Amino acid sequence: MTETVSSTGTARGRRKGGLKIEQTFSTPGVHPYDELTWERRDVVQTNWKTGATVFEQRGVEYPTTWSVNASTIVTTKYFRGAVGTDAREWSLKQLVDRVVTTYTAAGREHGYFASEKDAEVFEHELTWLLVHQYFSFNSPVWFNVGTPSPQQVSACFILSVDDSMDSILNWYKEEGFIFKGGSGAGLNLSRIRSSKELLSSGGTASGPVSFMRGADASAGTIKSGGATRRAAKMVVLDVDHPDIVEFVETKMKEEDKIRALRDAGFDMDLGGADITSVQYQNANNSVRVSDEFMRAVEDGTTFGLRARDTGEVIESVDARELFTKISEAAWACADPGLQYDDTINDWHTNPETGRITASNPCSEYMSLDNSSCNLASLNLLKFLKDDDTFDAPLFAKAVELIITAMDISICFADFPTEPIGETTRNYRQLGIGYANLGALLMAMGLGYDSDGGRAMAATITSLMTGQSYKRSAELAAVVGPYAGYARNADAHKRVMRKHQAANDVVRTLGVHDAGVHKLATKVWDDVQKLGEKNGFRNAQASVLAPTGTIGFMMDCDTTGIEPDFSLVKFKKLVGGGSMQIVNQTIPRALKKMGYQTESIEAIVEFIAENGHVIDAPGLKTEHYEVFDTAMGARALKPMGHVRMMAACQPFLSGAISKTVNLPESATVEEIEDVYLQSWKLGLKATAIYRDNCKVGQPLSDGKSESSKKDQGLSTATVAPEVVEKVVEVHKPFRKRLPKSRASRTTSFTVGGAEGYMTSGAHDDGELGEVFLKLGKQGSTLAGVMDAFSIAVSIGLQYGVPLETYVSKFTNLRFEPSGLTDDPDIRMSQSLMDYVFRRLALDYLSFEDRSMLGIYSAEERQRHLETGSYEPLEETGGSGELLAETTVGVVEAKATQPTGRDHDDRGDDLETKDTHGAEARQVPAQVTKQEARTSAELLEKITGTAVDSPLCMTCGTKMRPAGSCYVCEGCGSTSGCS
């Protein structure tokens, strides 16, 4: 894509010229904005609990290709200026220009470009990638770059603390400044003397755990003081620290305190009035374990805990007992996680400068103390071609352009402390990564926990990091290697050879991953040659971050390295509210695997109703694994997550932000196995979460037995709320059909079974009777159908809406089922399913049918051609009905059913996505008060609780993203963006 050319310019830092930028994505002579259609939207957000408007900005400008959710998140989170003033940004163009022009100007000033033309091409290429949602910078870039605020571009920070009161108090201060800016930090407390060692004055030291209390209170105060998001922090302690047991048990003991206080009547919900009395809740805790310790665990031998000042062993412990204590604590409260020290430092490019002792709060950035990293993530699904193959060359070109921009940002960036700024400028750590891996694998027909899925993920990750270091070596030829490179050159090149060797042992399984691997192999060859010649511009290049908020900005289905959370989710709609849709990757995956249109429709409808693929009509069991998700009936096994991380870890400079989720029934032994296998497979860090292990974490509903028990409730003693009602009784009225009425007779075949349906209507066209002829006269089947017809006809005449019958009887599944001879209904799950779909098409209006997701063949064809089911005259020919204009509280569009049995599977009905998505099932019981996000929707479908916190901003239930949580309602995260 680029080449280095000679230049005699004198720009600061220039060595041998600048980069020649090839125009790959944007069109020569056309500004990227002019290639898109733009529209104005209104963004209004309300708090679902109070109904109060928390944000409102009308007339914001976005491309029509951007979803309502993406425009909502970007408007509320990233637009700068006071709302309601002329200073407020109102267009995505302004936001992107603010960032991109700053990057381009800094690139010009610091000698990155060979000519002014190359600077202009760089600007257009970067703009094109951003507005087409191919990638996004991390949140601090959008918050700060191009504004009067300090130009902070990093989201990840690592601090350091020494064994002195000055250093400890400085730790509190530095952490506070970082939290104030909405970012997070991590550090290792192992230099602080233990409570078993003496002070120089003769007294006994307090130990690191005691100082954690002060830092935790500080983080909690800043969190409640209105930061951009909750304070996120990581606290690490080495496994050989004498206070390791106290550290391991801190949060577990606090969980016991929460239970006791809750049972005594105190408000211990997250955000409750009394929760602040609980300590250590604002940090993730991790134990830094060594290979020596892990081998002692395997061998069942003792392990020495060492004094901080002298290094001598002051206590020996049974390694297995300590390992079990760690696992028991993780089982009880999800902390601590493990970080594998020797593995981390074996891949360290700068060991001559210092060891890696800690990580950022989400565990993906691991580098020197007092350093930072700016992140950017690519949307992998954008590189999937129409033939469902991954466009590796295009991906590589995007990576090198983005890495160039990320390195430029360090030239103008501001930092919260001078030590952090100095280290970052000297080592220039970057963290390029990706999102949508789960969606990409599904679209390609690859299971997340399969050899094919892991091979594809590994080759893509290898190509990304290899291309990043190749560009880093090219940048070193232009603007010089990082300042600490000469001191660490041998070590850095050794790590590059390790990456290349890991790439060589990847075993591809198909032509698609083989093509990616072939390009990655060539790129790593180039890395060795260019690195030997030029050195490298960056000490680190890649991580896999949670991609919470920026994942929404890119309209990603899945975050970071994660699989899909669930097969059903919410989509925001025109005019506020939301609807349930089935993951749009599913039809593409089914088509890729050879399924025909009729089968795809039937499978998608089944998924919409059930939330999983088990027993989906026509779906082969060997294809089930493609649709495995993080939650639900076919949730991935814990080791499936671990094996995917292990496949990608050798190709990352840093680590992976990801939590291994385990079911509530998981044992301590299973957690021990996850931690042990993670070490053996070469991971740098592992965190686990067992469902419902945190009692202080509120659930949006407590339907599961465990959650009710944990709240001090018994399912046998929970009494329903008694509501006194005054019921006004009306006598039913029957609207009889006229003696002579219009009727329609339809012959049909379902799965080879023939039948006839005669329907009669009132003078106004409203359906009033149905007669079904199936089987021979006098047969049991014929008699049952006669009785059924009479019952339905009387119900219709007494005012039962046809929509109710359709919602009840469509999707009933029994034999005969299969193909029909009706061009509008090619596949039917039963005779009842066919009959009531046909009646809907014959007697219901387009609007009513679209709410039920029932369309004619003509309407489905129009959707394929225009993206809309609606006739052109109904859209005004301009698509204004498709324009997503107003965003409000998440709300399912479902009609209120009447007279239904509680155990009736007919409680489901369908609805339509006004933006052209396929019709999907919506559980009718999912109301505004009950479900607002995909996490809560999944709870409704599965009947089990999704153990996630509520959003501190808007109160809706969050869902996991890496080792953090992200809110689908407003985009807030509990950690890194």
UniProtKB/TrEMBL annotation:
Residues 42-133 form the Ribonucleotide reductase class II vitamin B12-dependent N-terminal domain. GO terms for biological process: DNA biosynthetic process. This is Vitamin B12-dependent ribonucleotide reductase. Keywords: Cobalamin, Cobalt, Disulfide bond, DNA synthesis, Nucleotide-binding, Oxidoreductase. Catalyzes the reduction of ribonucleotides to deoxyribonucleotides. May function to provide a pool of deoxyribonucleotide precursors for DNA repair during oxygen limitation and/or for immediate growth after restoration of oxygen. Pfam families: Ribonuc_red_2_N (PF08471), Ribonuc_red_lgC (PF02867), TSCPD (PF12637). It comes from Nocardioides aurantiacus. SUPFAM superfamilies: PFL-like glycyl radical enzymes. Residues 739-842 form the TSCPD domain. Belongs to the ribonucleoside diphosphate reductase class-2 family. Signal peptide: none annotated. It catalyses: a 2'-deoxyribonucleoside 5'-diphosphate + [thioredoxin]-disulfide + H2O = a ribonucleoside 5'-diphosphate + [thioredoxin]-dithiol. It is an enzyme of class 1 (oxidoreductase).
